[in-house]
Amino acid sequence: MKDIILTGDRPTGRLHLGHYVGSLRRRVELQNSGKFDEIYIMIADSQALTDNADNPEKVRRNILEVALDYMSVGLDPKVTTMFIQSQVPALFEFTAYYMNLVTVSRLQRNPTIKEEIKQRGFETSIPVGFLNYPVSQAADITAFDATCVPVGEDQMPLIEQTKEIVHSFNRIYGDVLVNPKIMLAENEVCQRLPGIDGKAKMSKSLGNCIYLADTSEDVRKKVMSMYTDPNHIRVQDPGTVEGNTVFTYLDCFCKDKHFEKYLPEYHNLDELKDHYRRGGLGDVKIKKFLFNVLEDTLQPIRQRRQELEKDIDYVMSVLHEGCIKANKKANATLKRAKDAMKINYFDNDEDSISEYYKKP
Ligand code: TRP
After folding, report:
1. What CATH architecture is 4-192+312-358?
2. Nearest CA residue ID for atom 9, ligand 1
3. What per-residue confidence (pLDDT) applies to 191?
4. Element (H, E) at 168
């Protein structure tokens, strides 16, 4: 069996550091590992419309933003097929058939959906398409025969739902669909990067993000305003590292080499943490260090983005070709699924429904 990756993001804004450590970084590593036969990354515009139906312009505008983010972090169109969900009609056909295998109450119990319904104030009136998006996400994953789905931890209940659909489908129609595995960020702190305000999660709606496309000056300002330990008032005070956003970010981004380069009086993060705990280490110093560490990652990304922005026709052609490839793959899987479901009336004599009359 082939090893295939499928994953994606909703184009509702530019991607930020939470996306980066939660999933993007991993995708690039997996891509470069050479271990996968096929890699598909989808810009999930149709899914974005399930709660932005009245704001199509936002979704449209962010397609190129996400594509630019993808390519600037190092996703390589020679290896990875990047495409747009709405341009692959087979996904909607899959969705329609899978809807017969899932109950409304099962969808209402999905923890991610529950949380999102609350956030969006949909309690009393949930759009059908929104409630159904886990089913359409199962279509996304299975249409590409994905074995591996690298995503953030919030997507876990959605992959669970996909597995259930695969199970039901295969039980009824035979061994047709591939059962996918979720792949999370290896480092637990990275699975849910807090915002710069220390709030649970970096998120556009909370306005606490550092974006991959932020300028160096933006990043500097944001890092300097970051939430640390509110009881660490004077430099000589002992400080707390746990729940201190600067240290959480360092846990996700800092490597020993950064000390050599930017803070040679320490060898590694443990030494820095010890000093902070003892007292005598100021917040400005650790913030300046974090800024340098982040810039080490962000500068090359920013540079690539600027170059790609100058040749937006190229980026468009990558998406266009990606859509063509994605359609080929999804159509082939759909054919297989419809054969198994016996909804292939005109394909050949054996499958034809006229058989019912021809047989003695
Ligand atoms: N739900 C994902 C998000 O909110 C986007 C997505 C759509 C996706 N289809 C997918 C992720 C399939 C992984 C696999 O960002």
Report:
1. 3-Layer(aba) Sandwich (3.40)
2. 137
3. 85
4. helix 156-173
> Token digits for 75?
């996703």
Residue 24 near residue 15 (C-beta atoms within 8 A): yes
Calculate how far, in angstroms, residue 47's C-alpha sits from the geometric centre of ligand 1: 8
Q: Identify the residues whose C-beta falls under 6 Å from ligand 1.
A: 6-10, 42, 44, 47, 137, 140-141, 149, 151, 155
Partners of 80 in the β-ladder: 39
- Cα 38 from chain centre: 17
pLDDT, position 360: 64
| pTM of the predicted model over 0.85 | yes
* Strand 4-9 relative to strand 38-43, pairing: parallel
> What are the residue boundaries of the structural domains of the chain, listed by start?
4-192+312-358, 216-308
Strand, helix or coil at 14? coil
User: By C-alpha distance, which of 165, 180, 181, 182 is closest to 337?
Assistant: 165
* pLDDT given for residue 75 in this prediction: 98
**Within the chain, which residues score under 70 in pLDDT?**
359-360
Show Cβ contacts of residue 20 under 8 Å, excluding neighbours closer than 6 positions.
73, 212, 297
Taking the C-alpha atoms of residue 27 and residue 72, their distance in angstroms, rounded to an integer, is 13
Task: List the helix and strand counts (H, then E) for the chain.
Answer: 17, 5
